[in-house]
From TrEMBL, chain A:
ABC3 transporter permease C-terminal domain span: 180-298
GO term, biological process aspect, one: cell division
Subcellular location: Cell membrane
Lineage per the UniProt record: Bacteria, Candidatus Magasanikiibacteriota
Membrane topology value: Multi-pass membrane protein
Official protein name in the record: Cell division protein FtsX
Domain FtsX extracellular positions: 58-143
Organism listed in the record: Candidatus Magasanikbacteria bacterium RIFCSPHIGHO2_01_FULL_33_34
Keywords from the UniProt entry: Cell cycle, Cell division, Cell membrane, Membrane, Transmembrane, Transmembrane helix
Keyword Membrane: yes
Record-level GO cellular component terms: plasma membrane
Transmembrane regions listed in the UniProt entry: 21-45, 177-203, 224-244, 273-296
TrEMBL record, chain B:
Record's bilayer topology term: Peripheral membrane protein
Primary role: Part of the ABC transporter FtsEX involved in cellular division.
Gene that this sequence comes from: ftsE
One annotated GO molecular function: ATP binding
Keywords assigned by UniProt, alphabetized: ATP-binding, Cell cycle, Cell division, Cell membrane, Membrane, Nucleotide-binding
A Gene Ontology term for the protein's cellular component: plasma membrane
Name of the molecule in the record: Cell division ATP-binding protein FtsE
Known partners and oligomeric status: Homodimer. Forms a membrane-associated complex with FtsX.
Classification via PROSITE patterns: ABC_TRANSPORTER_1 (PS00211), ABC_TRANSPORTER_2 (PS50893)
Subcellular location: Cell membrane
Residue ranges annotated for the ABC transporter domain, each copy included: 2-226
One Pfam family matching this protein: ABC_tran
Gene3D superfamilies listed in its UniProt record: P-loop containing nucleotide triphosphate hydrolases
Length: 302, 226
């Protein structure tokens, strides 16, 4: 226990007596963490953007105006039986007509033509949403069977097929790119942390050798550096989170214009604080401890 | 106290630092090890403090067989041998008090004992007023006296001094030699490694001469003959 308290005391002494090196180490760690967090934010925005585009995609199924309620119910039950389907919205003949009139209210010719007819020429419509854009194809294929040929007169399959495919492609590519970029950032982060700690240890190599010569054990020498790693990690992760929150506050008004959600980024950082701060704290701590172990190994051989 | 039996140290086939050395140092002796640069003096010190391992032969210090000492026991050995170096080897970011205290802290001594022992030791080496100074604020002679205080902090039975006056002027050299003689008079075995002819001849103690890694002479009251 006495050695542990001495290690804490030596760690703080080292930090304050090498204050410029300590500040530089924290600064580099903060810069590295900011880069990683920027990547996380970009990934978050990408998924938000993709999701909002996906939300706008649906398949409209137009029924013949002669289709009976039983037939429509049967199709609806069939569609709902697909696990891929997330939402089904049904609009009756009258609702469709109302929407149509509202849509073309400024076009007298169209409104007059509709009024001329004795009966509603429009059939009921069903708007279906699936969990993934790739599932629309499956749904369209499932509805293109002979028994529904007379009931379903049109599907917006052709109009949205290309958009769905593109979104699917973009999503896959963005995810693939994110994985590669995350891997690349991981390697860069490791090299930065490793070299920062190595430089910090290298400047103290003579001291480490002297400590060995006066009878210090390897653990007695190492423990202050482990505590220093802990302190550097606490400060760098804390400062990074504070900076990210501050930046989120500045960016959020602009983000709100695009995504129609207020405080999107701030809410994301707040609701994911444990995962974000916890994982980064653990990663940096392990990396700094591992780096200091590796960097000290040579100097501890004396 | 220190016993070397047929000790050799080879770094490679061409570089033989020590060649078949037989040397026995009795408790309480003051032995000067002399020789020109590259004669193997520093290698001998490194073998005694287990900084290097012998290629062959046996090195024993007290009850320790250094040739077979496990790595985890080396710190314990070093706490029992006081060592001072030509370049003082003080911790530059620590005060004089902290430098000497560090040698006690590594062995888990209590804070109260450290606070009692250090001022007394610094008084013995004549530096009580420099207790809170940093090494770079002291002269070479003062730094070497701090190193001596640190070496004595565990009351070692052996003090190994590797060129302790190499970086000092004549007056400081005399001061350091006086301190070493006093330490020896109190019963500590002193091994002095030097190539300073004047101090060896003044001492009139045992002199061991090394030349190209070989022990070429060993005289009970010797002189620097190279």
């Amino acid at each position: 226990m006495r050695s542990f308290f001495r290690a804490i005391k030596f760690a703080f002494q080292d930090i304050f007596r090498n204050i410029s090196l300590s500040l530089m180490t924290v600064l580099i760690l903060v810069l590295m963490l900011l880069s990683v967090n920027t990547l996380i934010i970009i990934k978050f925005f990408t998924s938000q953007a993709t999701q909002s585009v996906k939300d706008q995609i649906d398949v409209s199924i137009f029924f013949a105006h002669t289709a009976s309620d039983e037939e429509i119910d049967e199709v609806q039950s069939y569609i709902k039986s697909f696990p891929e389907v997330s939402n089904v919205e049904y609009f009756s003949k009258d609702q469709v007509l109302e929407d149509f009139k509202a849509k073309y209210s400024d076009n007298e010719n169209i409104i007059a033509s509709i009024e001329e007819l004795d009966e509603n020429p429009l059939g009921p419509t069903m708007i279906v949403k699936t969990r993934n854009p790739g599932d629309y194809n499956k749904l369209i294929t499932a509805l293109s069977v002979p028994e529904y040929q007379d009931i379903v007169v049109a599907k917006t399959f052709v109009d949205t097929e290309l958009a769905i495919e593109r979104i699917d492609n973009i999503t896959t590519q963005v995810e693939r790119f994110s994985v590669i970029l995350t891997g690349l950032f991981g390697v860069i982060a490791f090299l930065i942390i490793f070299n920062t700690i190595r430089v910090a240890i290298y400047t103290q190599r003579i001291e480490i050798t002297i400590k060995k010569l006066v009878g210090a054990t390897n653990w007695f020498i190492r423990s202050p550096y482990i505590i220093e790693s802990f302190i550097f990690t606490v400060f760098s992760v804390g400062i990074t989170y504070f900076l990210m929150k501050f930046a989120a506050g500045l960016i959020d008004p602009y983000v709100a214009v695009v995504f129609k959600k207020e405080w999107l980024l701030t809410d994301y950082l707040t609701s994911n604080i444990i995962v974000l701060v916890g994982s980064q704290f653990l990663a940096v701590l392990l990396l700094t401890i591992f780096s200091s172990f590796l960097a000290m190994r040579r100097h501890l051989k004396a | 106290m220190i016993n070397l039996e047929g000790v050799s140290k080879r770094y490679n086939k061409q570089s033989i630092a020590l060649d078949d050395i037989h040397l026995n140092v009795e408790p309480g002796e003051f032995v000067s090890v002399v020789g020109q640069s590259g004669s193997g003096k520093t290698t001998l010190v490194k073998l005694i403090i287990a900084e290097e391992r012998a290629s062959s032969g046996k090195v024993a210090v007290g009850d320790w067989d250094i040739t077979r000492i496990p790595d985890r026991h080396i710190p314990l050995l070093r706490r029992q041998i006081g060592v001072i170096f030509q370049d003082f080897k003080l911790l530059n970011k620590k005060t004089i008090y902290e430098n000497v205290a560090f040698a006690l802290q590594v062995s888990g001594e209590s804070g109260s004992r450290i606070r009692t022992v250090i001022p007394r030791l610094l008084e013995i080496v004549g530096l009580p007023h420099k207790i809170h100074a940093y090494p770079h604020e002291l002269s070479g002679g003062e730094q070497q006296r701090v190193a001596i205080a640190r070496a004595l902090v565990h009351r070692p039975k052996i003090l190994v001094a590797d060129e302790p006056t190499g970086n000092l002027d004549t007056i400081n050299t005399q001061d350091i030699m006086e301190i070493l003689k006093k330490i020896n008079e109190f019963g500590t075995t002193v091994v002095l490694v030097t190539h300073n002819r004047e101090i060896v001849n003044q001492l009139r103690k045992r002199v061991v001469t090394l030349d190209h890694g070989k022990l070429v002479s060993d005289e009970q009251i010797g002189k620097y003959r190279l």
